[in-house]
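We treat protein structure as text, and this decision shapes the records that our systems exchange. Because each token names a local backbone shape, the row as a whole describes the fold. An entry from our holdings is shown next, in its original layout:
>
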Amino acid sequence: MSSRDRSEVVGGQAGLAAITAAETHGELGEVEFSEVRARGYWEQVWRRFRSDKVAIASAIFIILLGLFLIAGGPIAEHYLGHGPNAINQNAGQDPVTFLPVGPWSHVKCADFYPPPADCAGKAATTTQLYVLGADGSLGHDEFLRLLYGGRVSLEVAILATIATMLIAIILGTLAGYYRGLIDTAISRVIELTMVFPALLFIIALSATVGPRLNHITFHGVFVPGVLTLVMVFAIFGWFYPARILRAQVLSLREKEFVEAARMVGASDGRIMRSHVVPHLMAPIIVYSTLTVATYILLEAGLSFLGLGIDPQNPSWGNLLSSGPTYYTTQPWLMVWPGLAILATTLAFNLLGDGIRDAVDPRSTR
């Protein structure tokens, strides 16, 4: 060891001795320690989700869309002076072009059937505005039917998603937790549901008992046909999330907190309800957002084929179904509902992607 190295060692030992002596005599004062608070899982999820600007924008868009569809229809109907089902032959067949009137057209009050309340006692030349034009030969207001149709499409998608996830949570949790015979029985039912021809069943249902099922509206709370589609989507849509949740539960049932709950005498029902299902919330939320977008497209497709919502009632699929009749002369009849479906499904998919990244503990955000 060189003389320089020896001097550094001696100096270091002397400095350490001085610090020790100072601590002994209380010359350094009290050392302050700042408390470090550990972040919980859901707090970390929120921090990661908040950093995803696209997901935040999608969530804001969905919230505003919901408010617009819920409150916008009645407000627009009040100010425009006619309803979404008001018939106007001159709006559906313009006297000059014999086509539905275009956006921002004014139609005479006298041409409405039944006459709107705002037209009572007014001159026959008084007009009412069609913001997006008419949707077809009957002269329904495209803008109002777009608003009310959006409510119907979202009702179908959200209610069907809730029903689907409830069935999936119950059956997936039972299959993964109990395993054995219960798991085998539920797995076989899942496989049968996967291979069942759903479209053929929907066609047969529509041709037989569909009209009677469509009249189930809970005293007018829902548009005819909504609950029928919800039932069909729930019956044929639960198997995939059930398989995902079953795999999660198979892993969770072996965790230490489940074993501890068994040791203190907790029943199987309490363990599943209080310890297992709360840990499934992340995949449930992610899959639910993606399922809503899927069901919006399914409702539009079935209504376009005449198998969904009654054509007399507005929905985005019904509006699309009337568009091909005038696609060469009035292409905007397909543009408006097409853009609505595109924007809504894209927002739900982007929101689902953002939540999926946020709930992933390996995320770098």
Summary: The beta strands are 87-88, 105-108, 112-113, 127-130.
